[in-house]
Amino acid sequence: MVRRKHRKLSEDDQEVWSKVTQTTAPLHSVKPFKVTFNPEPERVPMAQKPSRQMIRPLTQIGGIRPEARVTINLALDPMKASEKPDHQMDRKNFDRLRKGKIKPDARLDLHGLTAAQAHSELTTFIHRSHAAGKRLALVITGKGNSTRVEEGIMPTRQGILRHSLPHWLNRPDLKPKILQITPAHAKHGGGGAYYVYLRRTR
Hints:
By secondary structure, the chain is α+β, with helices and mostly antiparallel strands. It has helices spanning 11-22, 78-82, 91-98, 115-131, 160-169; strands at residues 106-109, 136-140, 178-183, 193-198. It has a domain at 103-198: Ribosomal Protein S8, Chain: A, domain 1 (2-Layer Sandwich), CATH 3.30.1370.
């Protein structure tokens, strides 16, 4: 094998080579770059649970007092709710009333009315009956059927009158005029009616 002799560069070649080396950078000066696939997503720290000091009872917010809390129990039997634990009438007349032996001298039938209409009619009826000196008023609501609803913008469940009547009669505008409320005897409507025994007019 014949070794080739290195030829010396001419002055022109040296000048060209000098210009080339001035405009280029050596390969080892270029930093290698790394390619990473499927990087892990940045982890977001979870919100800390509020401490007990940060949580305040509802009664401490906005000045709400515990005694202002309202409890509504729709499961209460209106017949039991209407029974006063200590009857205001004398025992003899109260027993006669419950046995249907006292004839009502005023009567109101709320069948077919909405709750709003019934409430208005009842209020007027009690005021007029009391002013006229009536003593025993019979208010008929019907027993109602929870499977039926009245048609209208605000459907009313059948039986709502039966449940609402004792509460309406205990409102401040009517309660002072009433001595006793109790379910009517079977011959006067039974579970679908109430006796409202009015106080004497003064």
